[in-house]
Amino acid sequence: MIVAGFGFRHGAGLPSLRAAFVLAQQGRVPVTQLVTVSDKTAALAPLAALLGLPLTGVPADVLACAATLTRSAASLAAWGTGSVAEACALTAAGPGARLLGPRCISSDRMATCALAEGFVS
């Protein structure tokens, strides 16, 4: 399974979220679900509906447990993790998951997306 994790600023719209997703997904296998912090799922719902993919929220308190490839000072201060997108993807993909690369950032810098591969048992 391939999980697309998202981090985004308040006010990020569908164009920003979709742009980050397209950058992250290019040339990859199909994504099976979208994920973000639990209290932000409503903002990501329009993209999930557009793509016809399930949407999952992860609790904010588990993000700091994920080892991310990138380290944003703002993300560390607000969420306790170097990348919300990477941490969400890893957490939702489950034990043994691996990132397929660092997060991708929309051109307006409002949204980030990272892909993680999980292994279904």
TrEMBL record:
Pfam families: CbiG_C
Domain CobE/GbiG C-terminal, first and last residues per copy: 2-116
Signal peptide stretch: none
Domain of life: Bacteria
Entry protein name: Cobalamin biosynthesis protein
Phylogenetic placement of the source organism: Bacteria, Pseudomonadati, Pseudomonadota, Alphaproteobacteria, Sphingomonadales
